[in-house]
Design brief:
single chain; alpha+beta; Arc Repressor Mutant, subunit A; 3 helices; 5 strands; about 45% helix
């Protein structure tokens, strides 16, 4: 049986309980996309990952991206760029 992880939320809201294997997969995909750039819009990140992962990920990629992205923000691994609209992300 696969372990589960309770995600965190940057505003202290309740996180979601997801399979750790799916969390790690999406986390690595997000960080891989953000590594080579100074910053990227959230929508661009989601679009890239939906195209890239659609055939190899079992689940709604966009839902997992937002859930894991919020967790990574709460853990201080990535951040929203202040005052960016639409919001942009970068690795801390």
């Amino acid at each position: 049986m696969d372990n589960r992880i309770m995600t965190k939320h940057p505003q202290g809201k309740k996180g979601v309980n997801i399979l750790q294997s799916k969390y790690e997969f999406i986390k690595n995909a997000i960080l891989d996309q953000l590594k080579g750039v100074e910053e990227m819009s959230y929508q661009e990140l989601t679009n890239i990952l939906e195209r890239k992962l659609k055939d190899e990920f079992d689940g709604k990629v966009a839902w997992y991206v937002v859930s894991v992205k919020l967790d990574l923000e709460a853990r201080g691994i990535i951040m929203r760029v202040p005052k960016s609209k639409p919001h942009r992300l970068r690795i801390i």
